[in-house]
Amino acid sequence: MKSVSDQEFGAGKQVEDGRRSYDQNRGETEREDTLTNRQGHPISDNQNVRTVGNRGPMTLENYHFLEKITHFDREKIPERVVHARGAGAHGYFEAYGKVGDEPVSKYTRAKLFQVEGKRTPVFVRFSTVIHGAGSPETLRDPRGFAVKFYTEEGNWDLVGNNLKIFFIRDPLKFPDMVHAFRPDPVSNVPGPVGMFDFVSRSPEATHMITFVYSPWGIPANYRQMQGSGVNTYKWVNAEGKAVLVKYHWEPLKQGIKNLTQEEANKIQAVNDSHATQDLYEAIERGDYPEWELCVQIMSDDEHPELEFDPLDPTKLWPQDQFPFLKVGKMVLNRNPENYYNEVEQAAFGTGVLVDGLDFSDDKLLQGRTFSYSDTQRYRVGTNYLQLPINAPKKRVATNQRGGQMSYFVDKAPGQSPHVDYEPSMTDGLKEASQTAKPHQPHYDASLVREKLDRTLDFKQAGDTYRAFEDWERDDLISNLVNALIQCDVRIQDKMVEYFTNADEDYGRRVREGLDAKKKAGTGESARDQAVEDAERMGHEADPY
């Protein structure tokens, strides 16, 4: 193998790309299209973060992930990178003091759950995910469902979606996923081509695609949709023993309603903010929406008896094996006084937990935990937690000082203003006493870049397809055909293969729909037709 001396390196052919010139030096195994990071390092695995064993947890030295996710977090100013379009409301959470029929203390020592009837203030933000702040609320998209609990032990943020699963299981793919789902970076025209190009190489997304392209992809409004924490968390009791948990919000009195594409089109034609208006007016007239918080509980181990890994966020936990257990209810009874101050500046993070709640080794959860708070510091500012909507409703005393928009010093009574560090022999802050046994999971595995062993990418998608009612399946097939007809035939073929792997009837119906459109010469999408119609239908006018 020929070596490259220090003098030779950097003296390669100069290439001009219209903005800058650079040396066209490549490693021996690199091609012109080899993926690198911004340090020029070739990336040999862009699918998996490095974890202790293939189930996690991930480790902080994942440089490629950190570079990729921190750049992604800063892509837009000042609008949220995702979840830009949203509405919010205040209310309270009332604990039942039990989980199902058992004392909640058996599983968690978190104080907000312990006493029946105990109320904790909350703020909730609902949102769409991909589309911008001014986009219609009828667009097909998952809906964000983020709840901030202002507990006596500090804030707890339960950040999730209306659907109980997600497209991917590894956080390294999150920036790519959102890029693929956004409008074309050249034309700025939205469409399904990039999304299905990405999904056709991501078989684990088949289940989520099945939900999103069905009526479940367009909830009728924010009040009448479910919510879910999506990721797997842990509950920890007073003895330091943990169980795995999944969180679910189930509408109480208002029920669940979804829209077909045709129905959504009619609503969008006359009102692009119908869900925000619906939530605001319901609360104003005293029709307060309510949800019940339920959890599924599983022992904290790998569960080899299951076909899937319980840490996989693309999977549902079967309710017949892991039933929904009620722990409390949430009522939204007050609208914001100012949208910008309370809804737009509200900042959530999956890492915001209180004692008795903990992280699982879910890779996507761990990646989100870094990304969310990092995004808030960039978008809202270093001191975003001093804003009233984000600040805990309890005492705060830190040694954090300065930064953009610092409103006050988080100083304790009697704390010396000269001591902004810890430990100190003088009048500084002191560590809290450890009152409960810490949860200390044990790990004994190699540090690897691998996906989970039990992927099971298609089975649950088939189960969901068969569980749909006929009208839901009809709408799903119609929506998929109308989207896929715009895609390259290679993408169409791969997606049909995935749908067939999920359910033979599912794949056959999508294939037949695509073939029928091609045979009839109606491969042009409704979006393309609308462009032509605008010119054809436009009325001529003289200049003035």
Summarize the structure.
It is an enzyme of class 1 (oxidoreductase). This protein is 26% helix and 17% strand.
Give the arrangement of secondary structure elements.
Blueprint: E1 14-16, E2 21-23, E3 51-52, H1 63-73, E4 86-95, E5 98-99, E6 102-103, E7 119-128, E8 143-151, E9 154-161, H2 174-181, H3 193-199, H4 206-212, E10 227-228, E11 233-236, E12 242-251, H5 261-268, H6 274-284, E13 290-299, E14 325-334, H7 339-344, E15 357-359, H8 363-379, E16 447-448, H9 459-467, H10 470-484, H11 489-502, H12 504-520, H13 526-537
Antiparallel strand pairs: 1-2, 3-16, 4-7, 4-14, 5-6, 7-8, 8-9, 10-12, 11-12, 11-15, 12-13, 13-14
Q: Say how many strands there are.
A: 16
CATH class of the domain at 86-167 and 219-386: Mainly Beta
Question: What integer is the average pLDDT?
Answer: 91
Distance between the termini: 73 Å
Number of helices: 13
- State which percent range the strand residues make up: 15-25%
Major sheet description: 10 strands, antiparallel
Principal-axes shape call: globular
- The secondary-structure element order is EEEHEEEEEEHHHEEEHHEEHEHEHHHHH
| Structural class label | alpha+beta
**CATH architecture descriptor name of the domain at 86-167 and 219-386:** Beta Barrel
Domain Catalase core: 36-430
Binding site for heme: 372
Enzyme class: oxidoreductase
Biased composition (Polar residues): 36-51
